[in-house]
Amino acid sequence: METTVKRVLIVGSGTIGTQVAALFALRGFDTVMHDVSKERLEHAAGAIAGMYNELAAGGHIDAEAAAAGLERLHQEEDLGRAAVGVDLVSESVPEDIALKRAVFAQLNEVCDPDTVFTTNTSDLVPSMLADATGRPELFAAFHFHSPMRGGDVVDIMGHPGTSPAVLVLLQELAGELGQAPIVLRREHPGYVFNNLLNALTRAALELAVDDVASPETVDMAWKRVMHMPVGPFGILDMVGLDTALRIARLGAEQLQDNGLQRIVDYLAQYVEEGRLGVQSGRGFYEYA
């Protein structure tokens, strides 16, 4: 496989897509962001400028690096124009399998035939999307963990038809991005860390749902015994209670899990009140 990644296309300008674009541009890649909404693209560009300013203020990068990153960043509403000359696509649209399949089908029509496709999905596995890409051998999951907020690992998960050369390429790319590659031997929903985190947060939520202890008490136990700065409910606030609700609802429906359904009902109360966590200023805790 001769592909060299120089120009990347980030599809979806939500929270994680914006951070992925910021990382690629900062690390020297010509980066195109695509979204169907001009407003979302403009918001993402402003958010990235803010991230770079924070890094510069903290002494993590200099002003020249921040300016160069912004120069390498481009926004494009038209998918055909966005796809011109890209070597790799990173998809970060909402976790809707039909939507993702439709997006990859469109990408297959406008991208060069040797462009590598990746998904940043948190919940799905690549084989659910591979045939829709039109290039299953060039497709894998390349899943980031808030890379502009301290996350420095990226999950790499192929499907049975993924070319081994693509997996090697993604491992090398992870290194160029300053991310440690977590390579899965086979498909598994939730990768490695998310499975560990889901087990912790489910146990915490069950204690609250069963009225064994309050979220504050659960967090205090975890933080003090494990000497951690944040507990499972604080983590859920950071993830977003809307995201946590979506994941729990998906699991409850797919597994017919009554325990997860009780968690769905519990989280739904917070989401319906607009208490989404850090992003809305309040969740299990209040944020200034």
TrEMBL record:
Q: Does the keyword Iron apply?
A: no
**Source taxon at top rank:** Bacteria
Q: Which InterPro entries match?
A: 3-OHacyl-CoA_DH, 3-OHacyl-CoA_DH_NAD-bd, 3HC_DH_C, 6-PGluconate_DH-like_C_sf, 6PGD_dom2, NAD(P)-bd_dom_sf
Q: Which residues form the 3-hydroxyacyl-CoA dehydrogenase NAD binding domain?
A: 8-185
Gene3D superfamilies for the chain: N-(1-d-carboxylethyl)-l-norvaline Dehydrogenase, domain 2 (1.10.1040.10), NAD(P)-binding Rossmann-like Domain (3.40.50.720)
User: Locate the 3-hydroxyacyl-CoA dehydrogenase C-terminal domain: which residues?
Assistant: 190-287
Give one GO term, molecular function aspect: NAD+ binding
A biological process term (GO) from this entry: fatty acid metabolic process
Q: Which UniProt keywords apply?
A: Oxidoreductase
The residues annotated as site (Important for catalytic activity) are 143
Q: Which PANTHER family does the record match to this protein?
A: 3-HYDROXYACYL-COA DEHYDROGENASE FAMILY PROTEIN (PTHR48075), 3-HYDROXYBUTYRYL-COA DEHYDROGENASE (PTHR48075:SF5)
The molecule here is called 3-hydroxyacyl-CoA dehydrogenase
Q: Which organism is it from?
A: Oceanidesulfovibrio marinus
Q: What is the lineage of its organism?
A: Bacteria, Pseudomonadati, Thermodesulfobacteriota, Desulfovibrionia, Desulfovibrionales
